[in-house]
Amino acid sequence: MLAYNLLLLLILILGICICEIKKSSRNNIVFLTIVSAAMIIMSYLRANTVGIDYKQYADYFTQVRNGGWSFLISSANGYRIEPGYSLLNYIVSRFTGDVHIFMLVVSIIIVCLTAVLLYRYSPVPWIGMFVFASFGFFGNSLSFIRQSIAVAVYLFAVHFLKDKKLLPYILIVLLAASFHKAILIMIPVYFIAHIKVNWKTLASYAGLTAFIMALSWPIFNFITKYIYQYYATREGLYYMMGRDWQTAAVPVITTITILILKDFILKRDPKNVVLINLSVYSGLLYIMTCQHFLFQRFGMMFFTSAILIIPELLASVGVESVQTEAMDKTENLKGYKNKTEKKKVLQERRQAKSKINMHKYIYYYATAAIIFIGFLYNVWILLQNRINLTPYVTFLTK
Fold first, then answer.
1. pTM value?
2. CA 113/CA 153 separation, integer angstroms
3. What tens digit of pLDDT does each residue of 41-74 get?
4. Is residue 269 exposed (0-12), middle (13-18) or buried (19+ Cβ within 10 Å)?
5. How far is Cα 208 from Cα 295, in angstroms, rounded to an integer?
6. Beta-carbon contacts of residue 252 (< 8 Å; ≥ 6 apart)
């Protein structure tokens, strides 16, 4: 557990010292570079016992290495319908047979894509990276390799989703699906992500959720009979078991918080309705996870959008949210010769400064709350150890 907590501590210290004390694009680059390097090294050095799916992906890499191109296009290739992942294994295997190098390449892809995403689209990149690490997304990348690559690629499509640009959105989703086909669920999301979030839509979502939960077993039996027969096996039935309420706690709390503050988030950028909807979908899917674990597989894909929406939330309640308004009320006093008008402007200036200070404190308290919840959530994930993240050991010392 120590290695993961040290990583969070590194993000926290560097985030405050580099990004918060003096905000600039250059400092964001420095922060993201250092933290990304730490994550990549940590991912590369892990032993094959760290990450429940590590051995499965290591064995597949060896198969590709030994089988070559003929294996890649044969029916023996279990990931033939996910050509992006198959090709990644093939390309790396042409240069080395060392699975640790393959894991290094995977980590570079996932972490660097996340860092670039946060630099380009996040108003508070260091908080986005803190959420990435503390909410379990980095830990997932040590095990759920295909899904983590797919999500890292997909998150770049959110920008085009906001701008309602269908073609680039679909192309990015298809690229992401070449690593994990489940990401195809994001195609229909394009047509509903801009729906206004109000009590009517929330009631509709809740009704649909209740309907799916009520008919989950008939739906499962139909799908496993005609489409995914594999999931009718014992492993498939395992996915139909429910998780405890703690599994859904933080995703649902995140969704509720976003809904409470949605007006602030939308005031900052009306296009953020997309991120709010993604958060709602993740919260509902995690509620459904309490009935069937299978829904968590989809819930995680939506929940990863938290690395974008939480920084947006902070920015929407921070100083920037009132700074422009305040600037309008702090005009040059030299332009006023009338004492009454000057007195009025001075009063408005004091009110503006007071408002800025209030939002500054709100930002600090909100940041502290995210950090506190993040550390608690990280500890809970590690104590549950559902995907064998602990004990963290390296292949050098194992």
1. 0.90
2. 7
3. 999 999 999 999 999 999 999 999 999 999 999 9
4. middle
5. 14
6. 283, 286, 287
